[in-house]
Amino acid sequence: MDSIYLDYAAATPLDASVLQAMEPYFTELFYNPSSSYLAAKKVRQDVEEARARVAHWLGAKPGEVIFTAGATESISLAINGVMRNYPKCEVLALAIEHDAVLATTKQYNHALIPVKPDGALDVDAFKKMLTDKTVLVSVGYANNEIGTIQNLKDIATILQEARRLRQLKNINLPLYLHTDASQAYYLDLHVSRLGVDLLTLNGAKMYGPKQTGVLFVKTGLELAPLHIGGGQERGLRSGTENVAGCIGLATALDICQTNRKEEIVHLNILRQELERRILQALPQIQVNGSQKKRLPSILHLSWPNIDGERLLMLLDERGVMASTGAACAANKDTKSQVLQAIGLDQSLAQGSLRLSLGRPTTPSQIQDASTRIIQAVKEC
What we know:
Elements: E1 4-5, H1 16-22, H2 38-58, E2 65-68, H3 71-83, E3 90-94, H4 99-105, E4 109-113, H5 123-129, E5 134-138, H6 152-168, E6 176-180, H7 191-194, E7 198-202, E8 213-217, H8 243-258, H9 260-281, E9 286-288, E10 298-302, H10 308-317, E11 320-321, H11 327-332, H12 337-341, H13 346-349, E12 352-356, H14 363-379
Parallel strand pairs: 1-11, 3-4, 3-5, 5-6, 6-7
Antiparallel strand pairs: 2-8, 7-8, 9-10, 10-12
């Protein structure tokens, strides 16, 4: 029985083209980009060219792109970088954010923005929560568990109006919008169109190398560095650059953004077929997340009175690799804050399954996986 991987929201395989682009920097092009000789300057040039490629897809300036060691560091730099400059102010985060966001905001005066049952930000509640002491708002572009896509443009418009009202009151405190776009690598990432001041990307989620990431920092926004040293990455992230990682991330993003329309169509067709097959056999199922604005790659399901962990075990025995939610939460055996935030009944929350599709997923895998999932649920 062939194994079927349906956990691409947790990790993606390294694209062969990405590996090929990275390989020279592990061997003959191993030089430190900060060194002064010509061979090292060539490596520096390659890093800056990778930065410019990332900036292109973000509609940003190359100097606004900071390379990091993954999304967690990027998020930490964004939130800590702002809040350390304004320690008496407030940060708001969406209630369904990844733990990397929620755990960081807990260090400061913070509040969680509620969501509707489909996972969309509650606009009315959000407007009431904004105060003249709010300096940062963090809203994920697309949820890693239920796939709901947030309307960042509308959120940015609300913040723009809040800034206008502050000016009328002679309040000079800035108000920034950060988004974790780790799962949104094949959506529109143009920062001006989204209206964001800070944006996080994760190489490991888009067929790039693990422990690589990006933080877009809008010009004029000052961040406190997490650590100091040689002054690399505008002094915000000192340390010798992970050259191969920078090249790999830029190459992975090139592939994702160049082919994003085709990939969305491909994933939508597969997810819809998987959902149709399972619903037809198991009509008591509940599909979680927005039905209109969701990632094409994620299908989050719940069954009443089923043990999700046992279901995962039965699926693993049948060669289907899936999850109940975020890999980090599963590893800590904690309840999903996402399912709690959308108000999912406990009996349904306990019987949840996240199926996330990827570039290598095939129609035959969808057919086989649906059969195995149906059998496992009936046995559970």
